[in-house]
Amino acid sequence: MRYSRYNIFSRIRDSENYFILNLLTGNADLLSVSEARMVESLRSGEEVSDTIFSDLMAEKGYLIDEDEESRIYRSRYLDFLDSHETDEIQLFFVTNYSCNFACSYCYQDQYTSSSSHASDEVVDSFFAYIGKEFAGRKKYVTIFGGEPLLNSPRQKETISRIINNANSAGLELCFVTNGYTLDEYIPILVSGKIREIQVTLDGTQNIHDKRRFLKNGDGTFDKIVKGIDACLNSKINVNLRMVADKGNIENLPELARFAIERGWTRSKYFKTQIGRNYELHHCQSSPDMLFSRISLYERMYDLIKEYPYITEFYKPSYSIAKFLSENGELPDPLFDSCPACKTEWAFDYTGKIYSCTATVGKEGESLGTFYPDVTRKNDIIEAWQDRDVTLIQDCRNCSLQLACGGGCGSVAKNRTGNICSSDCRPVKELLELGFSAYIEHD
């Protein structure tokens, strides 16, 4: 037997103790300093005198026969492939790339055709296409932009038409919106099957209004808050998103307190996420203001230690640590973390098809059309669909592959020009934080 190539082993942040986990065999354990030393010996190919410990390591799959490990890997990978046939698909539809905001970090501000919008023919063609192409698959539609809820009669007609089409097809809808006109749209939204509304709030008023403002410079905080209240009062699920960088992360405790005191966190219709502001295609933020993946989570970790109530507003996942803490078991191995052309597709009002929200609207990324004619670039689509850790060269011998899944294909392609390349995640460092935050002291 040998030390498993899929073990993830490290010291817990702010602790003398260690952790070890293996997503292939589904085990995770806390280790004392003496036990960690024995793991270090086993990892180096040495034997340890404590046979009870080494037997336990073998029982849990941390020590494993190479052929047996390969057999389990193949079996879990086949289960992963089979799940693609039943996984729910998220279908994004961009009604327009225009927006009433002039956010400091917008990556779409250089997109073309920003003044155009979806025609009735394109909306109907979109629903006809997804009804045929994804027939029999569980799916839902997310309306995206630009800003899809612009306050104009024409846009309200378009959203009403989308809702009518979705109702006829029995589909739930999500909306990704800046939230400025949510209150005005409630009478339209309540006529549909709304799964959730994602709204961005980058902090309390003094911070948010410096980052997310109207094109005339006016602040937007108060109207967004009013819209969130209106959604919750109408029993519409709100997913509040904070786009974080070094310019607003220190405001997280204050934003959390605001949401708690307003009663949002007590609502069953309210949840949150924090997204990292990063360079996607084009970004106006100064590079020195952007966090790396790990530095953002390190700062949140420190803030939560100082202001524990933040977790009532938002609990970081720290890779799979939050899942392990809340479920008492590890998730399935992640052979692929990029949903493009598998569980996610994107479409826009020009009739084009794209792989995902990270590529939609970007010149040169179209995979075909659904209007006026149906066309498909099958070779590129297959490249997106085939991408997983078994084909990404950098992933093949990486012990973190089943927790990382190869990362984002679009980010990897931007960096290397190759879809089937890696976008590495700091899994070990995140788990060091997560075991400290959620598991060691449970």
Plain-language structure description:
The structure is a single chain. With 442 residues, this protein is an alpha/beta fold. It has two domains: 2-82, no CATH class; 88-316, TIM Barrel (Alpha-Beta Barrel). The protein has 16 helices and 15 strands. The chain has helices at residues 33-43, 51-59, 66-83, 120-133, 153-169, 182-189, 205-211, 221-233, 252-262, 293-306, 310-313, 321-327, 378-386, 401-404, 409-416, 427-439, and strands spanning 2-3, 7-11, 18-22, 27-31, 63-64, 89-94, 139-144, 173-177, 194-200, 238-244, 270-276, 344-348, 352-354, 368-369, 375-376. It has a ten-stranded mixed sheet with strand order 11-10-9-8-7-6-12-13-14-15, with helices on one face. It has a three-stranded antiparallel sheet with strand order 2-3-4. It has a two-stranded antiparallel sheet with strand order 1-5. Strand 8 (173-177), helix 6 and strand 9 (194-200) form a beta-alpha-beta unit.
